[in-house]
Amino acid sequence: MRATRPVRPAFVRGAALLCTVLSAAGTLSACGLGGADKPTIAHKHSLTIGVKEDQPSLGVKGKDGTYQGFDVDVATYIAGRLGVPKSRIRWRTTNSSVREKALADGTVDMIVATYSITATRKRVVTFAGPYYVAHQDTLVAPGNTTIHNVRDLKGRKICAVTGSNSWRRVIEERKIAAVPVQAPTYGACMSDLADGKLDAVSTDDLILAGFAAGHPGKIINAPFTDEKYGVGLKKGDLEGCEQINRAITAMYQDGTAARLLRKWFGTSGLKLTTSVPQFEGCS
Ligand code: GLU
Predict the structure, then answer these.
(1) Is residue 32 part of a domain?
(2) What would the pLDDT profile of 159-181 be if each residue is shown by its tens digit?
(3) Nearest residue (CA) to ligand 1, atom 6
(4) How far apart are CA 50 and CA 38, in angstroms?
(5) Residue 236's domain spans which residues?
Protein backbone atom coordinates (compact mmCIF):
# COMPACT_ATOMS: atom_id res chain seq x y z
CA MET A 1 0.00 0.00 0.00
CA ARG A 2 1.24 3.45 -0.84
CA ALA A 3 1.68 5.81 2.08
CA THR A 4 -0.51 8.85 1.68
CA ARG A 5 1.03 12.18 2.52
CA PRO A 6 -1.45 14.84 3.59
CA VAL A 7 -1.51 17.60 1.02
CA ARG A 8 -1.86 21.06 2.51
CA PRO A 9 -3.82 23.54 0.45
CA ALA A 10 -1.81 26.41 -1.00
CA PHE A 11 -3.31 29.03 1.36
CA VAL A 12 -2.21 27.03 4.45
CA ARG A 13 1.29 26.73 3.08
CA GLY A 14 1.25 30.46 2.37
CA ALA A 15 0.11 31.27 5.91
CA ALA A 16 2.85 29.09 7.36
CA LEU A 17 5.41 30.92 5.27
CA LEU A 18 4.02 34.28 6.39
CA CYS A 19 4.29 33.14 10.02
CA THR A 20 7.90 32.16 9.52
CA VAL A 21 8.64 35.59 8.12
CA LEU A 22 6.69 37.37 10.86
CA SER A 23 8.26 35.36 13.65
CA ALA A 24 11.70 36.15 12.27
CA ALA A 25 10.64 39.80 12.45
CA GLY A 26 9.65 39.33 16.08
CA THR A 27 5.90 39.66 15.61
CA LEU A 28 4.87 36.19 16.73
CA SER A 29 1.54 37.35 18.01
CA ALA A 30 0.31 37.70 14.44
CA CYS A 31 0.59 33.91 14.19
CA GLY A 32 -1.06 33.16 17.51
CA LEU A 33 2.24 32.09 19.01
CA GLY A 34 2.60 34.85 21.56
CA GLY A 35 1.13 38.17 22.60
CA ALA A 36 -2.53 38.36 23.48
CA ASP A 37 -3.33 34.65 23.45
CA LYS A 38 -0.43 33.64 25.68
CA PRO A 39 -0.22 35.03 29.21
CA THR A 40 2.72 37.39 29.44
CA ILE A 41 3.71 40.24 31.68
CA ALA A 42 5.09 42.07 28.65
CA HIS A 43 2.17 44.43 28.09
CA LYS A 44 0.69 44.75 31.57
CA HIS A 45 -0.57 48.09 32.85
CA SER A 46 0.43 47.27 36.44
CA LEU A 47 2.56 44.59 38.07
CA THR A 48 2.48 42.66 41.32
CA ILE A 49 6.07 41.87 42.27
CA GLY A 50 7.20 39.36 44.89
CA VAL A 51 10.13 40.37 47.10
CA LYS A 52 11.49 39.45 50.51
CA GLU A 53 10.52 41.48 53.56
CA ASP A 54 13.20 40.58 56.11
CA GLN A 55 16.49 40.53 54.23
CA PRO A 56 18.43 43.75 54.91
CA SER A 57 19.83 45.51 51.82
CA LEU A 58 17.83 43.16 49.54
CA GLY A 59 14.17 43.28 50.48
CA VAL A 60 12.89 44.82 53.70
CA LYS A 61 9.37 45.92 54.54
CA GLY A 62 9.28 49.07 56.63
CA LYS A 63 6.76 49.93 59.32
CA ASP A 64 4.95 52.15 56.82
CA GLY A 65 4.47 49.15 54.52
CA THR A 66 6.98 50.24 51.87
CA TYR A 67 9.73 47.93 50.66
CA GLN A 68 13.36 48.73 50.03
CA GLY A 69 16.59 47.04 49.04
CA PHE A 70 18.65 46.00 46.03
CA ASP A 71 16.03 43.54 44.75
CA VAL A 72 13.31 46.18 45.12
CA ASP A 73 15.38 48.70 43.15
CA VAL A 74 16.22 46.14 40.45
CA ALA A 75 12.55 45.21 40.14
CA THR A 76 11.52 48.87 39.97
CA TYR A 77 14.03 49.49 37.18
CA ILE A 78 12.88 46.45 35.19
CA ALA A 79 9.22 47.39 35.60
CA GLY A 80 10.04 50.91 34.37
CA ARG A 81 11.68 49.49 31.26
CA LEU A 82 8.53 47.41 30.71
CA GLY A 83 6.49 50.62 30.84
CA VAL A 84 5.18 50.22 34.39
CA PRO A 85 6.03 53.16 36.68
CA LYS A 86 6.60 52.77 40.42
CA SER A 87 3.06 54.03 41.13
CA ARG A 88 1.61 50.99 39.36
CA ILE A 89 3.70 48.35 41.18
CA ARG A 90 2.13 46.34 43.98
CA TRP A 91 4.68 44.68 46.26
CA ARG A 92 4.07 41.38 47.93
CA THR A 93 6.18 39.52 50.46
CA THR A 94 7.13 36.22 48.84
CA ASN A 95 9.12 33.97 51.15
CA SER A 96 11.29 31.15 49.81
CA SER A 97 8.61 28.54 50.55
CA VAL A 98 5.92 30.09 48.36
CA ARG A 99 7.78 31.38 45.29
CA GLU A 100 6.89 28.67 42.76
CA LYS A 101 3.27 28.53 43.90
CA ALA A 102 2.87 32.32 43.87
CA LEU A 103 3.96 32.42 40.22
CA ALA A 104 1.88 29.43 39.19
CA ASP A 105 -1.36 30.69 40.74
CA GLY A 106 -0.84 34.31 39.66
CA THR A 107 -0.52 35.78 43.18
CA VAL A 108 2.49 37.63 41.75
CA ASP A 109 3.48 38.49 38.18
CA MET A 110 7.17 38.28 38.81
CA ILE A 111 9.62 37.57 41.61
CA VAL A 112 12.84 39.39 42.40
CA ALA A 113 13.78 37.83 45.73
CA THR A 114 17.29 36.31 45.94
CA TYR A 115 15.82 33.58 43.76
CA SER A 116 18.53 31.30 42.41
CA ILE A 117 18.04 29.76 38.99
CA THR A 118 18.30 25.98 39.45
CA ALA A 119 17.55 23.05 37.15
CA THR A 120 14.74 21.85 39.43
CA ARG A 121 13.07 25.24 39.60
CA LYS A 122 13.42 25.75 35.85
CA ARG A 123 10.97 22.90 35.33
CA VAL A 124 8.17 25.02 36.83
CA VAL A 125 9.39 28.61 36.49
CA THR A 126 10.64 30.70 33.56
CA PHE A 127 13.67 32.68 34.69
CA ALA A 128 14.97 35.86 33.13
CA GLY A 129 18.52 36.84 33.94
CA PRO A 130 20.48 36.28 36.03
CA TYR A 131 20.60 39.93 37.10
CA TYR A 132 23.40 39.11 39.55
CA VAL A 133 25.54 36.14 40.53
CA ALA A 134 26.01 35.75 44.29
CA HIS A 135 28.05 33.05 46.03
CA GLN A 136 27.13 30.95 49.02
CA ASP A 137 29.18 31.61 52.13
CA THR A 138 28.70 30.96 55.84
CA LEU A 139 28.07 33.19 58.84
CA VAL A 140 28.97 31.98 62.33
CA ALA A 141 28.61 33.36 65.84
CA PRO A 142 31.24 36.02 66.66
CA GLY A 143 33.18 33.77 69.07
CA ASN A 144 33.31 30.75 66.77
CA THR A 145 36.83 29.65 65.94
CA THR A 146 36.20 26.17 64.53
CA ILE A 147 34.25 26.73 61.30
CA HIS A 148 36.54 27.85 58.47
CA ASN A 149 34.96 26.26 55.40
CA VAL A 150 31.88 24.35 54.34
CA ARG A 151 33.34 20.97 55.38
CA ASP A 152 33.56 22.20 58.96
CA LEU A 153 29.74 22.24 59.01
CA LYS A 154 29.70 18.47 59.52
CA GLY A 155 27.72 17.69 62.66
CA ARG A 156 26.86 21.40 63.12
CA LYS A 157 23.40 22.89 63.30
CA ILE A 158 22.73 24.97 60.19
CA CYS A 159 19.63 26.91 59.26
CA ALA A 160 17.30 25.25 56.75
CA VAL A 161 14.86 27.80 55.34
CA THR A 162 11.82 26.12 53.82
CA GLY A 163 11.90 26.36 50.03
CA SER A 164 15.44 27.68 49.98
CA ASN A 165 18.28 25.94 48.25
CA SER A 166 21.16 26.88 50.56
CA TRP A 167 20.97 24.02 53.08
CA ARG A 168 20.58 21.56 50.19
CA ARG A 169 23.81 22.85 48.69
CA VAL A 170 25.61 21.79 51.90
CA ILE A 171 23.81 18.56 52.78
CA GLU A 172 22.63 17.15 49.45
CA GLU A 173 25.12 18.52 46.92
CA ARG A 174 28.26 18.62 49.06
CA LYS A 175 27.16 15.58 51.11
CA ILE A 176 28.25 17.24 54.33
CA ALA A 177 26.37 15.78 57.28
CA ALA A 178 25.29 19.04 58.89
CA VAL A 179 22.16 19.07 61.04
CA PRO A 180 19.37 21.08 59.39
CA VAL A 181 17.25 23.22 61.72
CA GLN A 182 14.06 24.43 60.03
CA ALA A 183 13.21 28.13 59.88
CA PRO A 184 10.65 30.07 57.83
CA THR A 185 12.96 32.90 56.68
CA TYR A 186 16.56 34.10 56.86
CA GLY A 187 15.46 36.73 59.37
CA ALA A 188 14.39 33.86 61.64
CA CYS A 189 17.76 32.14 61.05
CA MET A 190 19.56 35.21 62.35
CA SER A 191 17.45 35.26 65.52
CA ASP A 192 18.13 31.54 66.01
CA LEU A 193 21.87 32.08 65.59
CA ALA A 194 21.81 34.90 68.15
CA ASP A 195 19.84 32.64 70.54
CA GLY A 196 22.46 29.89 70.25
CA LYS A 197 20.08 27.49 68.49
CA LEU A 198 22.37 27.30 65.46
CA ASP A 199 26.07 27.00 64.77
CA ALA A 200 25.93 28.66 61.37
CA VAL A 201 23.83 30.24 58.66
CA SER A 202 25.09 29.23 55.23
CA THR A 203 23.55 31.13 52.31
CA ASP A 204 24.26 33.73 49.62
CA ASP A 205 26.99 36.26 50.43
CA LEU A 206 24.66 39.16 49.57
CA ILE A 207 22.14 37.96 52.15
CA LEU A 208 24.82 37.44 54.80
CA ALA A 209 26.41 40.82 54.04
CA GLY A 210 23.04 42.51 54.50
CA PHE A 211 22.55 40.87 57.88
CA ALA A 212 26.15 41.22 59.04
CA ALA A 213 25.75 44.99 59.09
CA GLY A 214 23.18 44.84 61.88
CA HIS A 215 23.67 41.48 63.62
CA PRO A 216 26.50 39.91 65.57
CA GLY A 217 28.33 37.26 63.58
CA LYS A 218 31.16 36.91 61.11
CA ILE A 219 31.27 35.69 57.53
CA ILE A 220 33.99 33.05 57.16
CA ASN A 221 34.74 34.19 53.60
CA ALA A 222 34.86 30.74 51.99
CA PRO A 223 32.42 30.99 49.04
CA PHE A 224 31.61 27.70 47.36
CA THR A 225 28.77 28.15 44.82
CA ASP A 226 27.46 30.43 42.07
CA GLU A 227 23.95 31.64 42.88
CA LYS A 228 22.44 33.03 39.71
CA TYR A 229 19.71 35.41 40.81
CA GLY A 230 16.89 35.17 38.30
CA VAL A 231 13.66 37.08 37.77
CA GLY A 232 10.98 34.43 38.22
CA LEU A 233 8.03 34.43 35.80
CA LYS A 234 5.09 32.14 35.20
CA LYS A 235 6.32 29.09 33.30
CA GLY A 236 6.14 29.74 29.56
CA ASP A 237 6.27 33.55 29.53
CA LEU A 238 9.12 33.72 27.05
CA GLU A 239 8.10 37.12 25.71
CA GLY A 240 8.23 38.64 29.20
CA CYS A 241 11.52 36.88 29.84
CA GLU A 242 13.13 38.29 26.73
CA GLN A 243 11.94 41.81 27.53
CA ILE A 244 13.37 41.51 31.04
CA ASN A 245 16.71 40.31 29.68
CA ARG A 246 16.84 43.43 27.52
CA ALA A 247 16.04 45.53 30.62
CA ILE A 248 18.81 43.84 32.62
CA THR A 249 21.30 44.50 29.82
CA ALA A 250 20.28 48.17 29.83
CA MET A 251 20.58 48.27 33.63
CA TYR A 252 24.25 47.30 33.35
CA GLN A 253 24.98 49.42 30.28
CA ASP A 254 23.55 52.65 31.69
CA GLY A 255 25.42 52.31 35.00
CA THR A 256 22.35 51.61 37.14
CA ALA A 257 23.52 48.14 38.22
CA ALA A 258 26.88 49.47 39.41
CA ARG A 259 25.15 52.34 41.22
CA LEU A 260 22.65 50.03 42.97
CA LEU A 261 25.35 47.54 43.98
CA ARG A 262 27.39 50.37 45.48
CA LYS A 263 24.29 51.86 47.14
CA TRP A 264 23.37 48.65 48.96
CA PHE A 265 26.66 46.75 49.28
CA GLY A 266 29.33 49.42 48.82
CA THR A 267 30.55 49.18 52.41
CA SER A 268 30.09 45.41 52.81
CA GLY A 269 33.60 44.46 51.74
CA LEU A 270 32.18 42.13 49.08
CA LYS A 271 33.82 42.08 45.67
CA LEU A 272 31.02 43.38 43.48
CA THR A 273 30.69 42.40 39.82
CA THR A 274 29.49 45.24 37.65
CA SER A 275 29.50 43.59 34.21
CA VAL A 276 26.33 42.08 32.77
CA PRO A 277 26.01 38.41 33.82
CA GLN A 278 25.88 35.63 31.24
CA PHE A 279 22.17 34.99 30.58
CA GLU A 280 20.73 31.54 30.97
CA GLY A 281 18.31 31.85 28.06
CA CYS A 282 14.53 31.89 28.38
CA SER A 283 12.80 28.51 28.65
N1 GLU B 1 19.37 32.03 46.66
C2 GLU B 1 18.99 30.92 47.46
C3 GLU B 1 17.71 30.29 46.97
O4 GLU B 1 17.09 30.77 46.10
C5 GLU B 1 18.85 31.28 48.93
C6 GLU B 1 18.05 32.50 49.22
C7 GLU B 1 16.55 32.33 49.21
O8 GLU B 1 16.03 31.26 49.51
O9 GLU B 1 15.89 33.32 48.92
O10 GLU B 1 17.33 29.26 47.44
Answers:
(1) no
(2) 999 999 999 999 999 999 999 99
(3) 114
(4) 21
(5) 38-134+227-265
Amino acid at 140: V
The CATH number covering residue 250 comes to: 3.40.190.10
pLDDT tens digit sequence for 47-106:
999 999 999 999 999 999 999 999 999 999 999 999 999 999 999 999 999 999 999 999
Residue type, 196: G
- E-assigned strand segments in the chain: 47-51, 54-55, 59-61, 67-68, 89-93, 110-111, 125-134, 136-140, 157-161, 179-183, 200-204, 218-219, 227-234
Please report how the helices 238-253 and 256-265 are oriented relative to each other, as an axis angle in degrees rounded to 10.
80
Ligand 1 pocket test target in 58, 71, 96, 98 with most atoms within 8 Å of CB: 96
Please report the atom of ligand 1 found closest to the CA of residue 161. Answer: 8
